[in-house]
Amino acid sequence: MIAPPAGCAEAPAVPGALALVVLLTGAFLSPLDYFIVNLALPAIQSGLHASSAQLQMIVSLYTSAFAVLLVTGGRLGDQFGRKRMFMSGMAGFVAASLLCACAPNGAVLVAGRILQGGSAAVMVPQILATIRAVFPKARQTRVMSLYGFVFGFASVVGQIGGGALITLRPFGLGWQSIFLINVPVGLLALLGAWRAVPENRPEHGARLDLGGLFFLLLSLALVIYPLTAGREAGWPAWTLVAFAASVPAFALFLGVEARLKRQGGDPLVDLGMFRNPVFSLGLVLAFCFYCDSAFFLAYGVYLQDGLHWSPLVAGLAIFPFGVGAIVGPLNSPRIVRHAGHHVLTIGFGLLASGFAIAIGMLWYRPSPSLVFYLGLLVAGVGHGLVLPSVVRVVIGEIEPARAGVASGVATSMLQIGSAFGATAIGGVFFSMLSRGSEASGSARAFQAGMAIVVALFAGCTLLAFALVRQHALASQRAGAQ
Question: Which of 39, 72, 203, 258 is 20 to 30 Å from the Cα of 215, by its Cα?
Fold first, then answer.
């Protein structure tokens, strides 16, 4: 036994390898289910006769539910025990995966994806909290490196594994297999958690902010649903009303948070943190960064529907990006030592230039070439540099007492950006799919969507310069005091 961490109500035993495997399995399943579904979208569309709006919601509403409920999920673990909430989230994730696999139509599948995202939001915050609470400090650096590797690995396995499952059709199953694979893995993780993961929670957990949660959900729903459903409906009046209503809904959210803070409560988001310009700029960069979800959404559809590639070959076509996404984090510490926060400038610059090279090559031929894949490799390296750095920069600007809240806000902003990329930028891609012949039309649609991503990342490169300048000014002021 070891002494309980400060502030913990229970004294956990030193966890063994099985506990770490179980926790990392939970960390693996959440991003896996985001990436694995992208290559299944064409098969889902043909199998369920789903609309393109439903395809977008299958991606965007998973990340939206995850983003909005993430901080609340962390607080549930603080109140009721992290092991208990990890197991509850995993059980919900397994049940939601079964619902997705058995969905008779697109609407039920969308509902299942919302439940998956919500369950992941309950499960995932307990992983880092448990690692920090019960693993000895001497092991935490190595454990956290494994945690970061799992996320990059999940993106590669999700794309390639999803393509393999749909192509090979195990047990005669089609797209359903990408959801059913979660069931045995999740059940084994539940058994392992029950046997090996120690229970832990702080003495005084933050209370739930149900009012803030409601208004944040409402404001996001009033934007995301019209963005996805409005295009196919011809942008009727209700979509404009919903967009307009999102503004007062978000204002109500801000009002509820400010009032709760004044009353000494625990708001979902501490608005005082936004007075720090580096923190605020970092959140903007986090939001824009995960808008590259439009790439994962559009790439598989472009290759399968436009070029008639098999899901397996389309999955392998993501490999250069995946290699870059793994190489980037491995070199990130070295770049940070020499460039500091400019690692974000370098990362966004590589993302913009890599994607620009890739879509530029499609003007010469509608199918990928060697230089196209080189562009994806460069973009992947940029992705791998930004991913571990943007959250670190955001958290580093906040005092340690509020680091947990800042981490939750930053992670939520990443997921909201992902939802926006799938809906807004993905909508541009789907709106152009019908133009031209199949191959050239899909290539032009892919170019149009990714051109927006390139412009966004070019702007982020300039914002990253501004962030570094603000950080330098803040450091100078701190040194002068």
Answer: 203
Cβ neighbour number for residue 247 with a 10 Å cutoff: 12
- CA-to-CA distance for 413 and 404, rounded, in angstroms? 14
Residue 355's pLDDT is 97
Residue 62's nearest CA partner among 101, 112, 27, 99 is 112
- With a CB cutoff of 8 Å and minimum separation 6, the contacts of 50 are 44, 58, 105, 106, 109
Question: By three-state DSSP, how is residue 396 classified?
Answer: helix
For residue 8, the one-letter residue type is C
Tokens (6 digits) for 279: 């923190």
Query: Could you report the average pLDDT of every consecutive run of 10 residues in the chain (481 residues)?
Result: 41 66 90 86 90 87 87 83 92 96 94 95 86 71 70 78 86 90 94 89 73 88 84 84 92 91 83 84 91 89 90 88 82 80 91 96 92 96 85 72 68 85 88 72 92 96 90 69 59
* DSSP of 281-347: HHHHHHHHHGGGHHHHHHHHHIIIIIS---HHHHHHTTHHHHHHHHHHHHHHHHHHHHHTTHHHHHH
368: left (phi over 0), alpha (psi -120 to 50) or beta: beta
Which amino acid is residue 301, in one-letter code?
V
d(CA 21, CA 185): 12
pTM over 0.85: no
Q: What is the pLDDT of residue 96?
A: 97
- CA 106, 108, 111 angle in degrees (round to 5)? 110
pLDDT at 12: 46
What is the distance between the alpha carbons of residues 391 and 432, in angstroms, rounded to a whole number? 34
Tokens of 170: 């195990």
Tell me the HSE value of 473 on the side-chain side, using a 13 A CA sphere: 9
SS3 228: helix
pLDDT at site 141: 60
